[in-house]
Amino acid sequence: MYRTRFCGYCLRAEWLLRRKGVAFDSIDVGGDQPRRAWLREATGQHTVPQLFIDGQSIGGYTELAALDESGELDRRLGLLR
């Protein structure tokens, strides 16, 4: 998860992932302009958080929450048995 330090949606995304018991990396891009530029190029977005699953961009918190609500997030994270 690419995030900034004082981002409410970043905190929500982190909470959702922790609730699921998912290990994830949290990368602060707040003062890192080269990484922010790469993130915009990779996702087409300029907002955070930006989340990736297995190297594929899934979007931000809104998209993460929608995947969770539909049950698709568990499938993508390999949480279904």
Provide the fold topology.
Blueprint: E1 2-3, H1 8-19, E2 27-28, H2 33-43, E3 51-53, E4 56-59, H3 61-70, H4 72-76
Helix pairs in contact: 1-3
Please give a structural write-up:
The chain has 81 residues and is α+β, with helices and mostly antiparallel strands. The protein has a single domain (2-76), classed as 3-Layer(aba) Sandwich (Glutaredoxin). It contains four helices and four strands. A two-stranded parallel sheet has the order 1-2. A hairpin with a 2-residue loop joins strand 3 (51-53) and strand 4 (56-59). Helix 1 packs parallel to helix 3. The longest helix is centred in the first third of the chain and has 12 residues, at 8-19. The mean pLDDT is 95.
The third-level CATH topology is: Glutaredoxin
The profile of the biggest β sheet is: 2 strands, parallel
Q: Beta-strand level of the residues, as a percent range?
A: 5-15%
Task: Output the number of helix runs.
Answer: 4
Q: How much helix is in the residues?
A: 40-55%
First-residue to last-residue Cα separation: 25 Å
CATH superfamily grouping: Glutaredoxin
Which descriptor suits the 3D outline? globular
- What is the domain total for the residues? 1
The CATH class turns out to be Alpha Beta
Would you identify the regions where 5 or more consecutive residues have pLDDT less than 50? none
How many E-type strands?
Answer: 4
| Average pLDDT taken over every residue | 95
| CATH A-level architecture | 3-Layer(aba) Sandwich
The helix/strand class is alpha+beta
* Chain oligomer state: single chain
Mind telling me the C-alpha Rg? 12 Å
Spatially, the strands of the biggest sheet line up as 1-2
Helix and strand element order: EHEHEEHH
